[in-house]
Design goal:
Blueprint lengths: L12 H5 L8 E3 L6 E3 H4 L19 H5 L3 E9 L4 H9 L8 E7 L2 E6 L2 E5 L11 E8 L3 H12 L15 H13 L5 H4 L1 H6 L2 H11 L9 E2 L8
Antiparallel strand pairs: 1-2, 3-4, 3-7, 4-5, 5-6, 6-8
């Protein structure tokens, strides 16, 4: 460099990132598990690796690689319409069905019964197609992680011998799994059904008999750790 010349100004890394004052508020960036200064999220700075599509928000490479998998709830009326017709006479109140549910994710149907956790192709049990389908949203949980999660449930909370028609049934399982996958519960008209039945004199009278009933829809395959199903 010649004597008397002035070195060109080179912005520091800090100035290029336009870091805010150390005391500036921070909040989690969408799709990222840790906080970033509010100024970045408002467009005042840009982090390496973040891509901003036209008119869109910044997305990380990790976020772009995550696939979304649809999650659905299959709802079956085990009474095949009988509950709707007979419940006013027997219970003194209207019940629209005796509900069995299952979770559909990663192209399979998963449910719980007296034989433990089972799986099959959607609609593959002898119950046939569901009476209704509830869209629970999407999940980023991969199939591998989901199967590991099911394995842990099958060895703890949802063993076959833990099944109880009123207190720990297929709908308990569906509700648990739905929250793990999407953060959403299944509809309350399903989970509240046992309490509605037991709140009636007829339900209380029949409870000793009903407690002994074990339900396992035929046609599914018992879930196993090694390959998803046996």
């Amino acid at each position: 460099m010649r004597r008397g010349s002035v070195a060109p100004s080179v912005p520091s890394v800090t100035s290029r990132l336009a870091l805010p004052h150390p005391g500036a508020a921070a909040e989690p960036a969408p799709g990222l598990p840790f906080p970033f200064p509010r100024r970045f999220l408002a467009g005042g700075g840009r982090l390496p690796g973040l891509r901003v599509p036209p008119g869109g928000r910044a997305r990380t490479p990790m976020e772009e690689s995550l696939a979304l998998h649809p999650v659905k709830l299959y709802v079956y009326d085990l009474s095949k319409g009988m509950a709707r017709r007979l419940s006013p006479l027997m219970l003194g109140k209207q019940l629209d069905g005796i509900w069995h549910t299952s979770i559909i994710v990663h192209k399979d149907e998963f449910f719980y019964g007296s034989g433990g956790i089972s799986s099959c192709a959607p609609g593959g049990t002898l119950l046939g197609p569901p009476d209704s389908v509830v869209d629970l949203g999407n999940t980023e949980v991969t199939e591998e992680i989901f199967l590991e999660y099911l394995s842990s449930l099958g060895e703890s909370m949802f063993r076959g011998e833990s099944y109880n028609l009123f207190e720990h049934n297929c709908n308990t399982f569906s509700n648990e799994v739905a929250q793990f996958l999407t953060g959403r519960k299944i509809p309350s008209y399903i989970t509240d059904l046992p309490a509605e039945v037991l709140a009636t004199p007829f339900g209380q009278a029949l409870r000793p008999l009903l407690d002994s009933i074990q339900i396992q829809p035929p046609g599914g395959n018992t879930f196993s750790r090694h390959n998803g199903q046996s």
